């Protein structure tokens, strides 16, 4: 019951946040800081609620350990025949210049693994693993658009997977990303033939963004469809879960750490103040920095 209560509190917080995002889009930017809903003060309230949720989860985790409770993972339950992607979470490969804050060392390490030609496996998976909001997708976009990556791969493909890991649908999206026509193939064999023809002998980089699948059989099925590429082909996956990374057979799991306080403040300042003059207000700056400290390096 305690965990259920915390879940509902977290769900309410996300709903409130989504509502606030929508409201800000409708409010004239000039009037935001003169309205009753100051975004910096709102963010401070959100941070307090988030801190309370984290503290409650920590207490529940301690109780779990002291009682020797066993965690059992359940597969994601979907409506029958439902393969609808959550469009709100759909991503793309482009990242604007200056969008990435920090992460230079992370990028270098991942690029080095992608360019490593000594790996013998036919289909090599590299995972970026971290909490939501740490910038896994942004880092993958940055790597995807790196000049060395562009030069070293014949094809670069981007697929947003999200909740539903349906092999045929993912294969269709790979074909579309490779330049094929968008089509709903009736048979898996048909899309397999199309995919094989497109990847045959080509060194490719496939990014699978926002993956949640823990089913090793589904991973094996998808990887078997991707064997036709040249040696050195890689799959770069982003996920929140170590279990997903393990199920995919990743040869390298890159754990994305928290931002430094300086990096977190730079990101906060960019998002909260945008191009306005509020950052010149010392009171607002102090409130913003307090929010950053309370978030502990998690945006």
From TrEMBL:
* Keyword Ribosomal protein carried by entry: no
Q: Which SUPFAM superfamilies match?
A: P-loop containing nucleoside triphosphate hydrolases (SSF52540)
GO annotation (BP), single: defense response
Among the GO molecular function terms of this UniProt record, one is:
ADP binding
State what protein this is by name: Putative ovule protein
Question: Which family would the database say this protein is a member of?
Answer: Belongs to the disease resistance NB-LRR family.
Q: Give the signal peptide, or none.
A: none
- Annotated ranges, domain NB-ARC: 105-276
Going by the UniProt record, its keywords in alphabetical order are:
ATP-binding, Leucine-rich repeat, Nucleotide-binding, Plant defense
**Gene3D superfamilies attached to this UniProt entry:** Helical domain of apoptotic protease-activating factors, P-loop containing nucleotide triphosphate hydrolases
Q: Which Pfam families does the UniProt entry name for this protein? A: NB-ARC
Q: Is Nucleotide-binding one of the keywords UniProt gives this record?
A: yes
């Amino acid at each position: 019951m305690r965990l259920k209560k915390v879940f509902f509190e977290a769900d309410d917080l996300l709903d409130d946040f989504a509502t606030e995002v929508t409201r800000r889009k409708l409010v004239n930017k000039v009037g935001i800081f003169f309205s009753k809903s100051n975004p910096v003060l709102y963010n401070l309230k959100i941070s307090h609620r988030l801190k309370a949720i984290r503290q409650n989860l920590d207490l529940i985790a301690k109780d779990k350990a002291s009682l020797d409770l066993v965690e059992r993972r359940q597969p994601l339950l979907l409506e029958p025949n439902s393969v609808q992607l959550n469009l709100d979470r759909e991503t793309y490969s482009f990242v604007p210049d200056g969008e990435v804050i920090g992460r230079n060392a992370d990028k270098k390490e991942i690029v080095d693994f992608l360019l490593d030609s000594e790996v013998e496996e036919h289909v090599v998976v590299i995972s970026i693993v971290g909490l939501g909001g740490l910038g896994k997708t942004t880092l993958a976009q940055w790597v995807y658009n790196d000049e060395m990556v562009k030069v070293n791969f014949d094809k670069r493909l981007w697929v947003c997977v999200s909740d539903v890991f349906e092999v045929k649908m993912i294969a269709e999206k790979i074909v579309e990303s490779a330049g094929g026509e968008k089509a709903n193939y009736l048979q898996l064999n048909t899309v397999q033939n199309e995919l094989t023809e497109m990847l045959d002998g080509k060194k490719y980089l496939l990014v699978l963004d926002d993956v949640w699948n823990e089913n090793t059989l589904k991973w094996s099925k998808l990887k078997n469809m991707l064997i036709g590429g040249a040696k050195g082909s890689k799959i770069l996956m982003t996920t929140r879960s170590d279990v997903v990374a393990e199920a995919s057979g990743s040869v390298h799991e890159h754990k994305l750490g928290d931002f430094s306080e300086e990096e977190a403040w730079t990101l906060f300042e960019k998002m909260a103040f945008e191009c306005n003059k509020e950052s010149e207000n010392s009171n607002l700056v102090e409130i913003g920095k307090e929010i950053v400290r309370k978030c502990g390096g998690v945006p």
